[in-house]
Amino acid sequence: MNKSILIIDDEQDIRVLLKYNLEKEGFTIAEAENGQLGIELALKFNPDLILLDVMMPDMDGIETCEKIKTHDSLKNTMICFLTARGEDYSQIAGFDAGADDYITKPIKPKVLVSRIHALLRRQSDVQSEDTTSSSESHSGIVLDREKYKVFKDGQPVKLPRKEFELLALIMSKPEKVFHRDEIMNKVWGTEVVVGDRTIDVHIRKLRKKLGEEHIHTIKGVGYKYEA
Question: Quick one: 155 and 172 in the same domain?
Answer without folding.
Answer: yes
